[in-house]
Write a structure and sequence with these properties.
- The protein is an alpha/beta fold and 267 residues long.
- The protein has one domain: Aromatic amino acid hydroxylase (Phenylalanine Hydroxylase).
Length: 267
């Protein structure tokens, strides 16, 4: 999915050694975000995310460099995190995933956007995504999505992105006790939406169905009105074994569903 910043945020450029300099205030924002979120993820997130967080062992008091996180990931399953400029499109996003490189926006949100930022910032990318990438089902699913994106017409990219959005970004999952818990990186890195996805009666929670997901539109500027629930991490592997190109063609023939936030307002 497209990774970008608005006029409000500007990407920081890495030096020749891949190092990005952050200000003392930016490091402080990271520390405050980390402290606000760590107890929430320990309370609400699926245990595999928490285990991944332990494996990564990222600093709590400063913004980590991508090279630090990459060193941990490469030792686990060969993935790495790479800083990207302010704008990358679907083509580059899918190419990076296909090559086991996760794009990391280099800026960090302001305090005004502390609870939720529409643009993926470094806290979302590192705190949200890196722990999940330690899980082989997630890592392999992400690479598979990347390879599919490399080899399909650009007009299909937004359809494919919905599979990623409703799983890796904002997916829920059943844990070993058959309880529905948050899994997605967008939830792990959002203080308010993690609680909302865990406890609120407002959003719909539906069992994951590929065709349903492919035809469900989403927005990035609101809490999700609908979440899809995976039966297990192994279901991600099952999805990769489908003919997703054929699924996308079928979804295109069906067309998109009415936006769920509009349906919710009408009820």
């Amino acid at each position: 999915m497209s990774r970008y910043t608005s006029d409000q945020y500007q990407a920081k450029q890495a030096n020749a050694n891949g190092w990005i300099n952050y200000s003392a205030d930016e490091h402080l924002i990271w520390s405050e975000l980390y402290q606000a979120q760590i107890s929430l993820v320990n309370r609400h997130m699926v245990k595999e995310y928490i285990e991944g967080l332990t494996h990564i062992n990222m600093p709590s008091h400063r913004i980590p460099q991508c090279s630090e996180i990459s060193e941990k990931l490469k030792n686990i399953n060969g993935w790495q995190v790479e800083p990207v400029p302010a704008l990358i499109g679907y083509d580059r996003f899918f190419n990076m995933l296909a090559n086991k490189r996760f794009p990391a926006a280099s800026f960090i949100r302001s305090r005004a956007d502390f609870d939720y930022v529409k643009e993926p910032d470094i806290f979302h990318e590192i705190f949200g995504h890196a722990p999940l990438l330690t899980h082989n089902c997630v890592a392999n699913f992400s690479q598979h999505i990347g390879k599919l994106g490399q080899n399909m017409p650009s007009e299909n990219h937004s359809w494919l992105a919905r599979l990623y959005w409703f799983t890796i970004e904002f997916g829920l999952i059943k844990n070993n006790n058959n309880e529905i818990v948050p899994m997605g990186s967008g939830l792990a890195s959002s203080p308010t939406e993690l609680i909302y996805a865990s406890n609120s009666a407002k959003p719909r929670r539906k069992l994951f169905d590929v065709m349903d997901v492919l035809t469900t539109p989403y927005r990035i500027d609101i809490k999700q009105p609908i979440y899809y629930v995976l039966e297990s991490f192994e279901q991600l592997t099952e999805i990769t074994q489908r003919d997703l190109l054929a699924d996308i063609e079928q979804a295109k023939s069906l067309g998109l569903q009415a936006p769920h936030h509009m349906l919710a307002q009408a009820c």
